# Entry
Amino acid sequence: MSNHKTNKFHIRKGDTVLVAAGNDKGKTGKVLEIIPEKYRAIVEGANIVTKHVKPSAANPEGGREETEAPIHMSNLALVDPASGNPTRVGRKLNDDGKLQRYSKKTGEFITNG
# Structure
């Protein structure tokens, strides 16, 4: 059971993030999936684990498969699309009166993509 009661995360699917802690510290990658219940994210090319797969009709050989494992979101920092540097994220109202994420470093709004 997670302590996080909100779905307002500082990173979203499709964002580019920097791994700030752990074995893959310093790597950057795209967020492939968010797991809200566990406050974790799967990042492309980071936290690679070897999984043993049983033979199946699709894969008659079976064998070992390398795949990305989830990383806790507290160990990820969003890479600011404008500057390319990691930044903290805040929320403020844009011109349309809609709450939107912004970079604490540059002050610019972050558009997903």
Summary: The radius of gyration is 17 Å.
